[in-house]
User: Fold this.
Amino acid sequence: MRVVVVGGGIGGLAAARSMWLAGFDVLALEREAAFGEIGGGVQLGPNATRVLRRLGLGAGLDKIGVTPRSFRLLRWANDEVLSDYDLAGDAERRYGSPYYTVYRPELVELLASGLPEGAVRLGASATDVLIGDRNEVRLADRTVEDTDIVVGADGIHSMVRAATLGDGPARYSRMVAYRAILPWEALPAGTEPVLRSWLGPGRHLTCYPVGAGGRYLQLVAVVPEPISSAESWTALGALDDLRTHFDGWSPGVRALLDAVTGPVYRWALYDRDPLPRWSTAGSTLLGDACHPMLPFMAQGAGQALEDAAALAACLRQNTGDPASALTRYEVARQPHTARIQRLSWANNTSFHLADGPEQQLRDEGLARSRTTEALHWLYENDPEHLPD
Ligand SMILES: Cc1cc2nc3c(=O)[nH]c(=O)nc-3n(C[C@H](O)[C@H](O)[C@H](O)COP(=O)(O)OP(=O)(O)OC[C@H]3O[C@@H](n4cnc5c(N)ncnc54)[C@H](O)[C@@H]3O)c2cc1C
Assistant:
């Protein structure tokens, strides 16, 4: 069976490796001339690291992954700790796989290194997909790839989704994420290797160690912005604007923002409502192409990895009837990812409550929760455990 994957991001590369390990003839097409993931960190819950280990990438992952000691939520005004969950030992003990933060370029390199020669074509922009007696992917250089299955792993503005299922505009959340990477030496003395999020009115700020050996701190500040702009890992933001957004916040937040000297990037946050259908007889979608979500559960990449594993398992178990395999994949994955999309959207409200009774209720709930217990269903999920 031949599978053409459109998109060479985290989801597309993981899909290509999963398909290759399953014995399929796979080609991933990436429109950028070089792997496009620049800068920035990504959190990988145990559900995501489990998939990477099963893809045979565990040793490489251990080299690039950092386990923050704990996950701490703090109050915006005074650094009061609202909750503090163990991450270091807990994830491995409870879920059999670690919680890692990784530097995106290192993760993409790890995924790409796991592919055989010729399985990824860079600078290959797909322009159209035709599903029928023959399935084909057309490229900007006027070449055509014939295939049995097309997998659209081409992100939130997926061409494959538009061509196979129709489309509507993505929803602008009226929030942007400022991102900066700080060398660990630049941080205030005594900074702990902890994943921290300060929650406050209308905005929040998250930071965590990242990069092999924990050499950087990734800072992500989510703030309101009524006017939409493009998502881009390379769009620059102004450091002064970022600092102004956090005027009056706690000493801990101010010290972190004072330590930023390098470039600050700005990413407008979009998502979509859950999509009811992902597949046709010869195509399906994966990752942000079918379930883009706000990053407030830190699960977009993790779910793309799970999709890759589930899709390969479905196709492997039903090579004689790929159309049924694609339906089985969609039925297994859609409700799970839709739930995470909705929770990510809900966190946009709960993270950003103004001080008052609702915020107090939220903080009392956080104080009572001693572990990541409420997320067991998410971290335990085994995407290869498929309903019949
Ligand atoms: C600020 C921020 C923080 C985040 N933090 C986390 C986190 O901590 N944990 C987590 O799990 N997730 C996180 N996410 C979400 C995560 O980044 C995405 O969900 C994930 O990158 C999606 O991967 P993907 O491969 O599906 O899509 P993408 O990363 O969008 O990749 C799509 C790829 O397809 C290529 N492409 C597009 N169109 C074409 C075409 N026509 N032809 C060929 N190639 C094409 C693109 O160039 C790109 O390389 C965060 C997102 C943001 C914005």
The longest helix spans residues 322-350.
